[in-house]
Specification:
The chain is α/β, with parallel strands linked by helices. The protein is built from 19 helices and 15 strands.
Amino acid sequence: MKIRIFLQIFWITTPLGAIQLIQPPTRDPVLWDLGVTTTTRKPGTAPLRDEVLVSTQLGKIIGRKVHLHDLPWTPQQDRSEQIPKAMYYPEPNPMPWKNNITVFVFKGIPYAEPPTGQRRFKPPQRLRSFPGTSPFIAERDPTICMQDVEQEPRLGIRKQSPWTASEDCLYLNIFSPDVSVASGQHYPVLVFLHGGDFQTGNMNDWPGHILASRGMVVVNVQYRLGAFGFLSLGDSETGNYGLQDQREALRFVRDNIASFGGDPTAVTLAGHDAGGVSAQLHMLSPLSKGLFRSAMSFSGADVSYWSTIGKSALAFNNTMKLGQYLGCIDKQAQNVVNCIATKGDQEIVRAYTEPQTPIEYNRDMFLPTIDGREILAHPLWALREAPINNAYIPSPVPLYISQNLQDGSEVIARNRRLGEFQDYQSVDLKMMEGYTLEYVFRHNYTMNKEALVQAIVDRYRYWPDQSDNWMLAEKFIDLWTDAYYTAPIAESAHLHSNLGRVWMLVNAYNFSRGYENLRFIPDWMAACRECDLYLMFGYAYAPPELRPHYMHDVVFTEEDRNATQIFTNIIRRYVTFQDPNFQSDDTWAAHEPRRHWYLKFNYTRYHALTVPGVLKRDFRYETVAFWNQYIVSLVNYMTTTFPPEVVSERQTLIYAYWIIGVLVLILMFLAVASFGMGYKLCEVTLPIAKHEERVLVDYTDTFPSRASVTSPRSSTNYGRVERMSAI
């Protein structure tokens, strides 16, 4: 029989005789029912042999031990850090080729009260104690946050997601190499935020067992998504609940991670896609200052157009539009929000994900909003002004930023028909033009739309053979890789490098290369979206049962394991030292404002395990200029397109036209003024001339006769008489 507790208050007596009140649980636990998933067990049950008990500020918690076998490293050391045998003084304590490591796993730990009921569309409420009876059992994957799981862009979409979505989702998972208090060991901490464009995703797909075996405490965090996490009225009081959830998780880590073997002063905040954007936004937020010492962003850029909603009016309109779809219409905006809060969670998700719900001026309706509180100003503006006023960057910590060679495959994965990887030849020129027109519309490019679309399509058209859909599919992915990732990531790395150290990496590793029968990504796709995460979380070394459900059947090669060993070592070095260079190699230069260094990762052979990759400079700089400069400048022109090298000359010509126009106006003004002054002068002198003429006529009519006037002699005599009279 299921026993549910609706209200539970205990009074206990402490050794000092004081009476203490234990708060009732905020969640509704199911006690000791073997037929359902439980987070509690029968009171008084001791931990099993493969379990571990940890005491925290919120109460005791039980996790599980997981044994990993045949790993080529230990939590304390990597093989690349050992002295080679060829050296005069060989390694005194050589590392075994295969090592067995135990990782302590705690799943489904609540870090805030469930944001349900009256807490919907509200900031997260701090957790007082673990729900249920003590100890809290943390051994099962929790529910994921509300979303449409069918819209998640990922590989293996034919396999149905095993996760259940719920509003009660503010949980985190912890993976630690050592939780023994007696050892006194405290490892650096990596807090990871999953991606999914702030609309989808979950932490359960990214188990941290292999990363923890590298010598760090891994914390995976879930946060509210879509309307549940970012519904806003455009003011500083509403919205950005997802970012607040993340901050609450960071506070939980600060207060409790020492109990799990972590160092609360050595936290690295990392994330993929939307999680990477979030990590950079926390760098810009004064409310997150002091909660982490370094940041990592995989395939995410805070300056990207799709990352935030910069106009408060747009956020307001999106909320009103959702309310209208749900039948919540009122003159008072807060009443609309209150009405939406009464709707069912599935009803709300359907409302803002249905195709008939129009989305204007961004990829999604609900995103982080520039509210002046959580995010003080638009990241692009704040970072450009930061060298002048450092107050806009509260946490200028070291930043690791990276992308995959074909992150734009996300656009393919979003399309369920194309995502099956069988209809890739459906990508034709018409589809490219349609997607590009939608991109231009979502960016609110109201001027010169046709020229913009034509310029973009012409740059990515496969000119040698425009009917080759295979090559066009690759060009299609390149287009969206550059638009959504390459260009904004380059801009973000450049601006952040003005403030602190930035390390940039481009992942070009292609899984199962040379083993076509083992490939789990399409032949025409290179380093795909999330391919760096497959390396980072060590799936090549993880047993199938520890991987995501859609990768249980994947067979990894020896090259995949070599690449994984190098990549996880890069992560380990950065999390530990804020510098990804290997101990035996320091050629990876930090990204500079005028020297855009980056590391190209594409190593597979064992002899390359001692270096992280190949150092290069200015990744796809021509493409970056096309998107960040030429397309932006083209919006202002009402003419046809021009090649990028002519844009600066046209700008100079426009300035010249302006100067000439101003000079012409000045000359016209002077001409009019001169004509006016001349006219006024004529009006003054004409009466005087007429008066003098009248006086002269009167004088001649009085003295001489007509004959004397007409005769030359008479005129001469008259002149003589005039002169004599004057004398």
